[in-house]
Amino acid sequence: MVLKAYRAAFKDIGLALAGRRKAQGMRRVSAWRIARAMTWNVQDLRGRRPVIRPIAPSRPVAP
Questions:
Q1: Do 56 and 27 contact (CB within 8 A), yes or no?
Q2: 15 and 44 in contact (C-beta within 8 Å)?
Q3: DSSP string of 43-54?
Q4: Burial class (CB in 10 A: 0-12, 13-18, 19+), 23
Q5: Where does the chain have alpha helices with state H?
Q6: More confidently predicted of 29 and 7
Q7: Is there a contact between 39 and 45 (Cβ–Cβ < 8 Å)?
Q8: What are the strands, taking DSSP E only, across the chain?
Q9: Distance CA 61, CA 28 (A)
Q10: Of 4, 5, 29, 40, which has the highest C-beta tally within 10 A?
Q11: Are 62 and 28 in contact (CB under 8 A)?
């Protein structure tokens, strides 16, 4: 029964991974820029203080 469940779960894994690759290829910002926008100060997180940083304009995407 478990083997049957695994087969059903992984039957269309290629389709799911292709969709993931497409979504990642359309990503506008890098993981580094996302991490930079996040607060890494524990006191900010503990006190629930808002941390607002200016957003740098993104580069235009070539058609």
A1: no
A2: no
A3: HHHHHT-----P
A4: exposed
A5: 2-10, 13-25, 31-37, 42-47
A6: 7
A7: yes
A8: none
A9: 9
A10: 29
A11: no
